[in-house]
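[step 3/7] fold_predict: job queued, chain A
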Amino acid sequence: MKILVLNYGSSTVKFQLFDITEQKKEFLAKGLVEHPGIEEWMLTYYTKDKEKIIEIFEDTQVTTIVGDIIIKSLTDKKYGVISSKSEIEAVGHRVVHGGEFFSQSVIITNEVKQKIRECISFAPLHNPHNLRGIEHTEEVLPNVPQVAVFDTAFHTTMPSYAFIYALPFNYYKEYGIRRYGFHGTSHRYVSHRTAELMNQPIEKLKIITCHLGNGASVCAVKYGKSVDTSMGFTPLEGLVMGTRCGSIDPAIVLQIMARENISLHDMHTILNRQSGLLGISGISNDMREIIEEMKKGSNRAKLAFEVFTYTLRKYIGAYAAAMDGVDAISFTAGIGENAPLVREEVCKGLSFLGVKIDDVKNKSAIGVEKEISSDDSKIKVFCIPTNEELIIAIETFELVSKIRK
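[step 4/7] structure written:
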């Protein structure tokens, strides 16, 4: 079954095409469509056996991205991987927020779309674009089944004491204010892959997964289920991130708004776009640039690095306590997979848990799947590139296969 996976954002659309059967999981092509702020779209496209292709599309050429860019590229005579859009048998969508409506992936219906709309207030930066991708796909592939895979679904196994905030309870009952958690598809993939690498059933393991990119979160996975995670009601809570502040005293927000006489919109921008690594360093939200400037002697870059790694170490320690132990820690996503210095600094402070990493293994683990713990470490430590799109494709295959039986 050829399955197209779509991840619609505000100014980018990521896509991958897979050929999935019971016996194989084959990647065929992937790409990124970006709107660089001018009246055109830029496509970066790869297939499994051809070179990277970059193509520019004028705005006037594009009615829908999925039809006029993605399918056009996949069926291109020179670098396409399918002959016609009729070969696409199902489409899987990443949807950021499913609220308390969805604890698992679902076939998309009108009712499902309505529930996604109802969750827009929880994820106003994401859900509208996810929904737009679904509706565009309906236009271009009207008879092809679509599946929604929710970032929040993996975390619906959290116990109530982990997701309830200490606010008047009616805010939860009336407005759904609680911890939801995000990056669920990544945490699910990485925790299961960790168990496979350890050659042990996940139902017997306590694993801490660290998804570290421009957005970052940690998850406590106990016996295969999420029992706590650092992101909360929105993706703003938790770790220090590229431009997000992470967890802060909420009274700070009131203080800044009063002193600066700024609006809710401006405060939202400060917390989400001007804080985190960028806010502390004054240099960049990119950990690569932070490390480079730190090595050159920048004190603020060093402070940003230290705040980031210290906060992550605190969460790992807390989740080890929450699960009454930990068997493995896995790092993933852009920083987790490509910044050995971050992994080294975080693990230095975990010796009380018996964590020891091998310097040679750690430094060589850049964008590759590898165990980086030393032979005498009590806890296994891994670098594992995430593969959220593969999980979405597999979920889509399983659901669509069921309705065809």
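[step 5/7] annotate
The CA atoms of residues 75 and 83 lie 5 Å apart.
The radius of gyration is 21 Å.
exit 0
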